Amino acid sequence: MVNQILLYACSALILFWGVAHLFPTRSVVKGFGDISLDNQRIITMEWIIEGVSLIFISAIIIAATLIDRTNSVSKTIYWLCFIVLNVLSVVSLKTGF
Hints:
This protein has helices at residues 2-22, 25-31, 37-68, 72-96. The chain is mostly helical and 97 residues long.
């Protein structure tokens, strides 16, 4: 029961992070100053894609937990989501600097 609650709580946090990532997109692009239209579109695309990816990861975790959190497919989904979230964090860290 505790594991299931933690899975839902973590997926809710990821969902919130994804939605919160989408709202400041326009401000983030403006924060880069006077850049070309192509660069503005690339930054916008990256922020939207990252937010949508986080929302999708959250949805997959919720679906796997609702169906059956103990089977091997669900456990594989959890591990893959863990790996993808870590890859996203490393990419964000490296591109942020």
